[in-house]
Amino acid sequence: MKLLLRRHTFTENSTIGSLYIDGLFFCYTLEDKDRGLNQGMSAATTALKKIFSKTAIGYGDYNVILSQSNRFKRIMPEILNVVGFSGVRIHRGNYAGDTEGCIIVGLKKGIDAVYNSGDAEKALMLKLQDAVKNNQTITLDITT
User: Fold this and answer.
1) For residues 63 and 144, what is the distance between their CA atoms, to the nearest angstrom?
2) Is the dihedral of CA 127, 121, 79, 26 positive or negative?
3) Residue 23: closest CA among 123, 118, 141
4) Any idea what the Cα angle at residue 108 is, between residues 5 and 96, rounded to 5°?
5) What does pTM read for this prediction?
6) Between β-strands 103-106 and 90-91, what pairing exists: parallel, antiparallel or unpaired?
7) I need a surface site. Which of 25, 27, 28, 127 has the fewest CB within 10 A?
8) On the CB side of 29, how many CA atoms lie within 13 Å of its CA?
9) What are the distances in angstroms from CA 106 to CA 67, 113, 128?
10) Is the dihedral of CA 40, 19, 105, 139 positive or negative?
């Protein structure tokens, strides 16, 4: 399964994008501010640009798994091998303060916000669980 996140709306507080699954629009996304990170940067360069809990993860290609979140106490999508970040998840929320580097999903978008997030997360989890059941690799490409 191929997830594509196209970032398109940038503010001082957040980044809004569109999430596609296998080429079809699925929902909107909300992340922290895009500070120009990319997956090819070293950990040292990432650390210089990153502001803890206020920076979107870097552009690039990632593998995604479903795993138990100690923080949220449930199975959630986890984005693997994000330079300079740990425990990056895709989950529900509404505002940039809910992200801490994670990707928030929602069915509607606003200024620095997404809405109907619980519904988006539930639908995404069903699709990801089906992919896992069918032994599909889940990838995420973050681009503009």
Assistant:
1) 19
2) positive
3) 141
4) 65
5) 0.95
6) parallel
7) 25
8) 33
9) 21, 9, 16
10) negative
Extract the runs of DSSP E, i.e. beta strands, from 85-127.
90-91, 103-106, 108-110, 113-115
Total length of the chain: 144
Tokens 């479903």 sit at which residue? 66
Compute the 3-state secondary structure of the chain and give helix, strand, coil in percent, each to the nearest 5.
20, 45, 40
Angle of CA points 82, 59, 118, to nearest 5°: 75
Per-residue pLDDT of the chain (144 residues; tens, 9 = 90+): 999 999 999 999 999 999 999 999 999 999 999 999 999 999 999 999 999 999 999 999 999 999 999 888 999 999 999 999 999 999 999 998 899 899 999 999 999 999 999 999 999 999 999 999 999 999 999 999
Chain centroid, CA 17 distance in Å: 10
DSSP alpha helix (H) spans, the chain:
43-49, 117-133
